[in-house]
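Please, structure for the following, as tokens.
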Amino acid sequence: MHWLYLAIAVVFEIGFVLGTNAAKGFTRLWWSVFAIGSAVIGVYFLSLALRVLDVGVGYTIWTGLGTIGTVIAGVLFFKERLSPAKAACFAAIILGVIGLRVAANV
């Protein structure tokens, strides 16, 4: 169940970052509310996952997958450029997340 909690936390982490971008420095009320709400919910589900997971593993996976999700959303929705060098670095993050996931079960 803790991996499900972490997955939910990741989704809300991505929502938080995208909402913060759309809030334009917290000058747009509803996007600001969305961003803050997403942050609170994301941290809540992270805290549930950390009941079982080591904090280093859980937090690193949360931020790593949140980063990857945000990059993908940036490319798809905001027309941000993903160079080969950036893609290689993001692939390294994904490999690190997979490694931590495997190591957490050892």
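The chain has one domain: 2-104. The radius of gyration is 15 Å.
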